[in-house]
Amino acid sequence: MSDPAAESSRVKKFRGQRGWSQAELARRAGVSRAAVSAIEIHRLIPSVSAALKLAACLECTVEQLFGAVPNAQAKEWAWLPMTQQSRFWQAEVAGRLLIYPCEETAAGEVAHDGIAARDPIAGDEREFSNGSSLQTLVVAGCDPAASLLAAEYARQTGLRMLVVRRSSGRALQLLKAGRVHVAGVHLSAAAGQHGNAEIVGREMNEPTMLLRLAQWEEGVAFVANVKAATLQNLLQRRVRWIGREAGSGARQCLDELLPARKQPLRIAPDHRSVATALSNGWADAGVCVRLVSEEAGLRFLSVRIENYDLCFLKSAEPNPRIQALVRVVRSPEYRRLLSELPGYSVADAGQLQPADLPQKAIAQKTPGKIR
User: What is the mean pLDDT of residues 365-369?
Assistant: First the structure.
């Protein structure tokens, strides 16, 4: 990885190609003219934020402009890989360069950035990387339609979105630990009138913003040979249930439906896994969203309408990748795609609100943890 200071004269080259003065570049990028001058004469290594602003203004990548990630610490695993040799992605999160073991994403197989391997004799790790860490947004969540967002994000912005499948509770934990940029949550049923904002405000240590992605219909999917016209009929029948993972909004729903019963032995990690379990005869009924139930040809009984929000730290709001996310969620193209999905509503899509609790609610609530 090259020295950012040694490469910073590229800023002058890119600026000159456009015929801009230092003052004009500073104005367009939202940085000081003194900073531009200091960067060009190797007296200042730009912050990640400044590097992103300059690269966006000059229509190039940070790596093209500086040859390295400014001020990034040594690479560290976001979470440990399961094998000695692992393909990985890389992304900058809050000034840290993190590497992520490749896994199945909501968008299917995503090309890896490199390979990390531990030599069994020497014991050293060898990394091979060609990824652009500052062009990647990492999202953790359980939206079964997240592939549409990832594709539209790439099409509209030229940036990459990685969507790792995690429950709402787990996604919030990763956001809190600084391991992802965005967490998707639908935990409003446990929070009463203040919805996801109350849960997020209670769990996070610093100001957090919620971006409304959609409202969706959650309920019980079940196989055709189970005869039930109403939810009450279904709950009275002896059926094999597929469980949901702890910390998920669907687990909250299942606990409300089956308060006196033992948790099912088989647990599904996400909505689509519920439909797969039912389609393969491993269970008769389970909680998921209407979309995956209809796609699998299952019967469905609605339980409630939920808000699905994307959460990010308020301090990250100026980040160009976050700003791009907001633009895409608000775009007519994406809203149209989402509105055509069964059980999805985009009436409030794109709305931003802080996750801060109202003072009255703070006084009345005792801080708790998501299970």
Answer: 38
Spatial distance between the Cα atoms of 162 and 91, rounded to a whole number of angstroms: 10
Is residue 199's pLDDT more than 60? yes
Q: What is the largest CA-CA distance in the chain?
A: 76
Q: Is 53 exposed, middle or buried (0-12, 13-18, 19+ CB in 10 A)?
A: buried
CATH number of 4-66: 1.10.260.40
pLDDT for 282? 95
> What is the CB neighbour count within 10 angstroms for residue 319?
22
Q: Which residues contact 251 (CB under 8 A, 6 or more apart)?
A: 167, 243, 244, 245, 287, 371
Contact 137, 161 (CB under 8 A): yes
CB 294, CB 338: distance < 8 Å: no
Q: In this structure, are residues 62 and 72 in contact, taking their beta carbons and an 8 Å threshold?
A: no
Asked if pLDDT for residue 343 goes beyond 70, the answer is yes
Q: In the predicted model, is pLDDT for residue 41 greater than 80?
A: no
CA distances from 243 to 58, 92, 110, 150, 250 (A): 51, 35, 29, 28, 9
Extract the tokens encoding 341. 């999905």
